[in-house]
Amino acid sequence: MYDYLKGQVTRITPEYVVLEQQGIGWRLFTPNPFAFQKTAVEQQVFLHMHVREDAQYLYGFTSLDQRELFRKLIQVSGIGPKGALAILATGNPVQVIQAIEMEDESFLIKFPGVGKKTARQMILDLKGKLGTLLDHVELPSTEEELPLFGANPYKHELEEALLALTALGYAERELAKVQPQLEENEALTTTDAYMKQALQLLLKLK
C-alpha cells in the first residue's frame, strides 16, 4: 500500500523514529533508529506495512535493499518482523546475503535470536531466491571467511600503534584498558590517529 514517506524526523527512540509529514507524525519501527537524524531537512524513508489481527505496524528503511531483505526474512519460518529488524540492525544486507548464499550457518547464528535451526531454515528458504539483491553482491571464495561483526577495517593500523606505544614503554595492561575505546572509534583510520587518541586516553588513566 505504502512505498515511502518524505518528511522530517522529529523523534528518535531506541525502537522507532517519528517522521512528520504535513502535520502527521508517523511512527516507524526501523533496524537502527540512530541511522536517522533530527534535522529540518526532509528525509525519505521506504516503508513496509505489517498487519496483524490486533495491530498495524509501519516499518521504515533507509534503502530499498534493506526493505527487500526485510521482506525476504519475514517469509522464513521462525522469523518475525522483530527478528528481521534485529538481523538488519546487527549486520548489513551484504553480509546477510553472502552468508545465506554461502550456507554459512556459523555466521548466521551470530544474529540475535537465530539458532542453528533458524539459520538452516534461512538458507533453505532464501538461497538462490534473493533476486535483485544479488546484483551488487560479490560472493567471497570458499577459502575466504565472512568478516566478524564489528570487524575493524583498520586493525593493522591499530596493531601498529599499540606496538609503537609498547616500544615507548607503556605496559600491556595499560594498553588493554584503552584498546576497546580505540576499536570502537570509527573516526580513527591511521596509525598516527590511533596513537594520538591512545596517548590522550592513557593520560587520563594517570
Instruction: List the helices and strands in order.
Output: EEEEEHHHHHHHH
What order do the strands of the largest sheet run in, or round the barrel if closed?
3-2-1-4-5
Number of domains: 3
In angstroms, what is the radius of gyration? 21 Å
| CATH T-level topology of the largest domain | DNA polymerase, domain 1
Q: How would you characterize the largest beta sheet? A: 5 strands, antiparallel
How many strand segments?
A: 5
Shape designation: globular
Task: Outline the low-pLDDT stretches.
Answer: none
Number of helix segments? 8
GO biological process, one term: DNA repair
GO cellular component, one term: cytoplasm
Organism: Metasolibacillus meyeri
GO molecular function, one term: hydrolase activity
Structure characteristics:
DNA damage; DNA-binding; four-way junction DNA binding; four-way junction helicase activity; alpha+beta; 5 strands; five-stranded antiparallel beta sheet; OB fold (Dihydrolipoamide Acetyltransferase, E2P)
